[in-house]
Every structure is written in structure tokens, then in C-alpha cells.
Design brief:
CATH class: Alpha Beta
Distance between the termini: 18 Å
CATH topology: Rossmann fold
Structural class: alpha/beta
Order of helices and strands: EEEHEEHEHHHEHEHEE
Shape: globular
CATH superfamily: P-loop containing nucleotide triphosphate hydrolases
Largest sheet: 6 strands, mixed
Helix content: 25-40%
Number of domains: 1
CATH architecture: 3-Layer(aba) Sandwich
Number of helices: 7
């Protein structure tokens, strides 16, 4: 099966004054289309730095990153923004919704950036909201929705562009345990429908939903296990 994500000998060095800190120390792994992968590790292990590189929000110091077959290492900022919007869907711990904007318009945002016509935008956004169980909530503002519903809006927004990969960063971090379970069951359902998901989490019970777990420590991968 083709790799949708491929990291080869990725190093990321941060310079602070006259000090250098190596956040990633030659990390290599690939993710095939349709996998559900949890990236785990303590604070400072390198998992967030890795996620930023996967999300084209940061560049590796050395090494190669290929996303859906494309080498993103030589891209400029505009090209990186385009590939983020077309190939990736993001789900964050804090939802990152526009509070004064109806849910359906929040879901439409990636399509606005992609210059999709308004009528098609609305059709696709409504379909994505239906997919995540938010029928009837299209015109609610985020402040009128529960935390779980807000995260479902964020997941619908991540889905609306039919991305190659969904990147979820601590997606249950602001939710209670029952709502967390609902959201993870939704991720499982999306994955069963063929969507590739890479999720950062420090919670073992959340990571247990993924079929594969990659564990970081001190900038290196120390385990890569499959359920």
C-alpha cells in the first residue's frame, strides 16, 4: 500500500542564543493510506515538533518529508499553505472555531481558502456536518454548542476538503471522559471508512483506539507497535 506520509531521517534543531537543542534526532517512519496512528510521549519528547512538521507548520532542519507523494521540503510559504489546505485536515485540542460565526460557516473555511464557489461550499459543509452527526446545528454559533459538539464541528471542518490525512492534536484534551469516548468512536468510524488519521495524545486510553502507536522519548522513536 502506498505511503501517504513518509519521514526519512528527520532532524529538527532549534537555536536559542548560543545554545542548540535537537528536538528530533533522525526520525523515520511512514504511514499507509487508511491507517490510524497515535503518536505518544511525555512533554518534551518531540511528538509536538513532529506533528508540526507533519502539518507543514514547521520545516525539518535536515531529512525528507513526503506528503501524498510530494516532497514538501523545498516548498515556499505559499506552497506550504496550499498543501496544508488541500492535503491535510486539522483537529485541535482547543477546537479553534470562530466564536461569532455559525457552525456551517466554520466548516466551510477550508473551502473559502480553496476558492470553491459558495453553493458548492455550502453543500459540502452540510454533508460533512451530517457525516459527524450535527444535523440541525448548522446555524448554531460555537458558544451555543457543547464541547463535544464543537469538536464535531472541528472534525467536519477537517473532513470538508477530503484531505489525504487528518492530524488530530490532543483532540479530547478539553473534553470529559464520556464525551472523549464519543469523539474517539467517531474517529474510529471515520477510519473504518478509509480516512487516514494521525493523532497526538499522552493518554493511553485514547491511544488505545488507534491500531498503531508510535512512542517518542528525547527526540527519538523508542517504540512502534500495532494492535
Amino acid at each position: 500500500m502506498d505511503s501517504v506520509i513518509s519521514l526519512t531521517d528527520i532532524r529538527r534543531v532549534f537555536t536559542m542564543g548560543d545554545q542548540q537543542f535537537e528536538a528530533l534526532k533522525g526520525v523515520s517512519f511512514s504511514v499507509s493510506a487508511g491507517e490510524f496512528v497515535a503518536i505518544m510521549g511525555a512533554s518534551g519528547s518531540g511528538k509536538s515538533t513532529c506533528m508540526n512538521i507533519l502539518g507543514c507548520l514547521d520545516r525539518p532542519t535536515t531529512g525528507e518529508y513526503r506528503l501524498d507523494g510530494v516532497d514538501v521540503g523545498s516548498m515556499n510559504h505559499d506552497q506550504l499553505a496550499d498543501i496544508r489546505n488541500s492535503k491535510l485536515g486539522f483537529v485541535f485540542q482547543g477546537f479553534n472555531l470562530l466564536p461569532r460565526t455559525p457552525a456551517v460557516e466554520n466548516v466551510e473555511l477550508p473551502l473559502v481558502y480553496a476558492k470553491v464557489p459558495a453553493k458548492e461550499r455550502r453543500q459540502r459543509a452540510l454533508a460533512a456536518m451530517e457525516h459527524v452527526g450535527l444535523n440541525g446545528k448548522e446555524n448554531n454559533h460555537p458558544t451555543q454548542l457543547s464541547g463535544g459538539q464543537q469538536q464535531r464541528v472541528a472534525i467536519a471542518r477537517a473532513l470538508v476538503n477530503s484531505p489525504a490525512v487528518i492530524l488530530a492534536d490532543e483532540p479530547t484534551g478539553n473534553l470529559d471522559s464520556a464525551t472523549s469516548e464519543e469523539i474517539m468512536n467517531l474517529f474510529n468510524e471515520l477510519n473504518r471508512n478509509g480516512i487516514t488519521i494521525i493523532m497526538v495524545t499522552h493518554e493511553p486510553d485514547v491511544a488505545a483506539h488507534a491500531a498503531r502507536r508510535i512512542t517518542f522519548r528525547d527526540g527519538s522513536i523508542i517504540a512502534d507497535t500495532r494492535a
